[in-house]
Amino acid sequence: MKLTLEQIRTMTHGALAVVQDAEGKFEFRRFTDYQQSHYDEVKPDFGNKAHATSGVRLEFFTNSTKFAFDYHTVIASSRVFYYFDVFVDGVMVQHFGHDKIKEAKSTVTVKLDGGKHKVAIYLPCLSCAKLYNVTLDDDAIFEPVKKSRKLLCYGDSITQGYDAQYSSQTYANLIADKLDAEMINQGIGGEVFRPELVDPALDFDPDIITVAYGTNDWNGRERDRMITMANGFYAKLREAYPKAKIFAITPIWRADNDRVTKVGTFAEGVQIVKDAALAQEGVILVDGDRMIPHLREVCSDKYLHPNDYGFKFYANALFDAIKPHLGGEE
């Protein structure tokens, strides 16, 4: 049977909206119309990155003997690779994509044995993936997976998923799994503190919010501008989500942190983030310096963006920071 738009919506995690285009392809949107329009207007490159399917996954139970779909990917980042990961009952069984290709179309079949299984398909983080002709066996059971929490992630390229070769292994996807949370990933490569991004009309009520900006602010902004925008962001975020647990992740270690920028030293940039976060009631600081080892080997570019190995350290450290604040939930 071919799955309908409504069935796709129920099995999708990580998208604020799922729509079907004129060709029957399912599009997954992780930003509101306002946020998308804002990016398209003020920074078209960010508008393109906003189309990336970072954090989007399909999760469901079925007794079908196979699950199949066609996909069409278009690069939505400064990277020219994309990868899908497929899990059955928590075990990765497929990993596919391309290292150097800007656009691709293909068909995927996941073989199952007909027993009841939990299937999860993680979509690419650095490209825009559209799915179509999504099918299960006729009369197969189909049960969407429900999550116990809601998580909203703000951040830059590291949050979007640069440079994980396995889409399931970004820190945002890993922490969502650890928290059993439906996660909306609003990370954008190159992003800085931007109060305008906080959209009170966003139809998603998070229990937990993580914020991981600052490294690009330190690298490319004036000091006064960074202070103003960081304070403005956290003030607007706390106003929009008065009940959410907000975790402010300070900039993580980078190999070129001995430089002095227009903001000042790296430590001064980190302090600006701390001051802005702590100015808002209840915001919890997470020490970014402890997220990954201070080694070039855990960074894909040897100085900043974690590789798959580095992301595991990041996710574990972040979970350790969040867990004490979950009360009796764990």
Compact summary:
With 330 residues, this protein is an alpha/beta fold.
Which properties best describe this structure?
single chain; 330 residues; alpha/beta; Jelly Rolls; Rossmann fold; six-stranded antiparallel β-sheet; five-stranded parallel β-sheet; 29% strand
Topology:
Elements lengths: L4 H7 E2 L3 E4 L5 E4 L3 H10 L1 H6 L7 E6 L3 E10 L6 E7 L2 E8 L4 E9 L5 E6 L4 E10 L5 E3 L4 E7 L1 H4 L10 H9 L1 E7 L20 E5 L2 H6 L2 H18 L4 E5 L16 H13 L5 E3 L21 H15 L8
Helix pairs in contact: 5-9, 7-8
Helix-residue proportion: 25-40%
Kindly provide the radius of gyration, computed on alpha-carbon positions and rounded to a whole number of angstroms.
19 Å
Unreliable spans are none
Number of helices: 9
Q: How would the global form be characterised?
A: globular
Summed up, the domain count is: 2
Number of strands: 16
- The CATH architecture assignment of the largest domain turns out to be 3-Layer(aba) Sandwich
Overall pLDDT: 97
